[in-house]
Design a protein that fits this description.
The structure holds two protein chains of two kinds.
Chain A: H1 2-22, H2 26-41, H3 55-62, E1 65-69, E2 72-73, E3 77-79, E4 85-86, H4 88-101, E5 107-111, H5 117-122, E6 128-134, E7 144-159, H6 168-174, E8 179-183, H7 188-195, E9 200-204, H8 207-215, E10 221-225, H9 226-235, E11 240-256, H10 261-276, H11 280-291
Parallel strand pairs in A: 1-5, 1-6, 8-9, 8-10
Antiparallel strand pairs in A: 2-3, 3-4, 6-11, 7-10, 7-11
Helix pairs in contact in A: 4-11, 10-11
Chain B: H1 9-13, H2 15-48, H3 52-66, H4 70-80, H5 91-116, H6 120-128, H7 133-163, H8 175-186, H9 189-218
Helix pairs in contact in B: 2-3, 2-5, 2-7, 2-8, 3-5, 4-5, 5-7, 6-7, 7-9, 8-9
Classes of the chains: A alpha/beta, B mainly alpha.
């Protein structure tokens, strides 16, 4: 989501350069990319464009898909114990490769910080960005968003055993007695108070300090992204529970360079059929793996999305 | 400075918060020093008692605290103790306890040296005029020792005041925490850290000035 992915970008920047060098682009390439990006971001008249060949066919000819993503945010895109890039975003990228070439390995990942998501698209460094990108009207003026594949929000993570309160209703009823922790950022207090207007807020320097405060029962709940909560609950079964209340919704979608309806439409088709059609099993398996949630099988009969 | 536009309005808007934070830090340091002095005095006497079952544990305590970073002690008391179901201290109290234990170890060494430096003749003279053992300590040894150790005590107060910045790690709203919060909210990095530094510097210097006056007034005559 907007607030935290931007914050992570500084960390990612170093990694990006390092990885790019590995991919043979080098520092100069990255720097030039930055310049080109700022030029390309400037508004240009959309007139008099010739109908170009869609990226879809370029990719088919090239024989591999180039995807921009990150590597530091479980369960979306991160390195597992063996150093292999995994996560929900990575699974979706592999599904695209599989749909294109019948081989989920025919994909090259370009690791980048959150702030590189739009520039890397407009400078054609990557074919598509699959990197927990929150859909906003502002961003939609610079790139084309695909169908969203996840609705993110924040929630309150609590201890399963040993905590004073059991769920959101009890937290709310306890009013001023409740302390909620989270990682220090601009919105922390405002967001917590949207859900629990009277709660005390403890801001911690890092997400792990907030987690440890919860483990030590120093705070009654920790405000987190719901996807992160589900991932943590998966990692330590029986330790944490969701308070049952979620708020601050925002949608995660992929993005492509604007002006290529064929490519956008193709990606949309893959995503949609992954969520409700032929690739549902693949999508549901990923969903179960990263969030621990079993998706209900789409209803057969009238397509629900038009209901 | 490359193209950084200062906006001190941010500091002005948060002046109350910063003042409260500074006072909280001072209060943490003074309270911890007071408790630390008590711990230090008791342990210093235990150390010079000549009884191994008193002096060995004190030695262990002093060396353990002196050889571990304060931040780890803060983390242990705040995050670690609740795992053993000890959680009656809130974040501020648990920080005061950490800082007191830390100060206690240093004060223990200071007082031990102070006790050792008192001339034997003082105690013998006190004996000669018929003072009881506790009277010898209360009227002769301790007053002299406090005068001798005063400069070290004031040094410790200044360094404890600076150590209160570690309380930010467990969300105690002192100066460092508040500066970081202003950073997070406004991205005025330069302004908030420069202000915090200036406040630390000025306050520590003021403490030093005041204590120097006190030292001048009470300094040991040797």
């Amino acid at each position: 989501m907007g607030a935290h992915d931007d914050k992570l970008s500084t960390d990612d920047a170093d990694l990006t350069l390092e990885r790019r060098s590995l991919f043979g682009l080098g520092l100069a390439g990255a720097a030039l990319g930055g310049l080109a990006a700022s030029a390309a971001l400037a508004p240009t008249p959309a007139a008099a464009q010739t109908v170009a060949k869609s990226k879809l066919y370029t990719i088919k000819e090239r024989g591999k898909l180039i995807v921009g993503t990150g590597s530091t945010n479980p369960p979306w895109h991160f390195q597992d114990a063996n150093g292999k890039l995994v996560g929900m975003d990575i699974d979706l990228a592999r599904l695209l490769a599989k749909s294109l070439f019948d081989d989920p390995e025919k994909v090259e990942f370009v690791l980048q910080g959150s702030d590189a998501r739009i520039p890397s698209l407009v400078t054609d460094k990557v074919d598509i960005v699959v990197q927990w990108m929150t859909v906003t009207p502002g961003r939609a003026q610079q790139v084309d968003f695909t169908f969203p594949y996840y609705r993110e929000g924040v929630g309150l993570l609590m201890l399963d055993r040993g905590g004073k309160y059991k769920n959101y209703a009890e937290l709310k009823a306890a009013g001023k007695a409740v302390t909620v922790g989270g990682m220090q950022n601009v919105f922390l207090e405002e967001w917590i108070h949207k859900a629990l207007p009277e709660a005390k807020v403890d801001a911690f320097e890092s997400p792990d300090a907030a987690m440890q405060a919860l483990n030590a029962r120093r705070i009654d709940a920790s405000m987190q992204d719901q996807s992160a909560m589900r991932w943590l609950m998966q990692q330590a079964p029986g330790r944490f529970v969701d308070s049952g209340f979620g708020w601050m919704p925002n949608s995660y979608a992929s993005a492509v360079k604007p002006g290529d309806p064929t490519w956008l439409n193709w990606v949309n088709t893959v995503y949609k059929e992954a969520m409700v059609g032929v690739d549902f099993d693949t999508f549901a398996a990923s969903y179960k793996k990263w969030f621990g949630i079993e998706l209900p099988i789409p209803k057969v009969g009238f397509p629900q999305e038009f209901a | 400075m490359i193209d950084y536009h200062f906006d001190w309005g941010v500091i002005a808007r948060n002046a109350d918060k910063l003042t409260d934070a500074l006072l909280l830090g001072l209060w943490l340091a003074v309270v911890s020093l007071a408790i630390g002095c008590v711990i230090g005095l008791v342990t210093a006497y235990a150390r010079v008692s000549g009884k191994w079952w008193l002096s060995r544990p004190v030695w262990l305590y002093v060396e353990f605290i002196r050889c571990t970073p304060l931040l780890l002690l803060v983390f242990f008391l705040y995050f670690g103790l609740p795992e053993f179901d000890i959680s009656f201290l809130d974040k501020t109290q648990s920080f005061i306890l950490s800082l007191s234990l830390y100060a206690g170890a240093y004060m223990s060494e200071v007082f031990r040296a102070g006790l050792a430096s008192i001339p034997k003749q003082y105690v013998e003279a006190a004996k000669a005029i018929g003072l009881r053992p506790w009277q010898r300590q209360a009227y002769v040894v301790l007053p002299v020792m406090f005068r001798i150790t005063l400069p070290s005590v004031s040094n410790n107060l200044i360094s404890l005041f600076k150590d209160t910045s570690l309380a930010a790690a467990i969300a105690v709203p002192e100066l460092t925490f508040t500066a970081r919060q202003i950073n997070a909210n406004t991205f005025r990095v330069m302004e908030s850290w420069l202000t915090a530094s200036a406040l630390y510097l000025a306050t520590a210097y003021l403490i030093a000035l005041v204590l120097r006056q006190i030292e001048r007034r009470y300094a040991a005559i040797r």
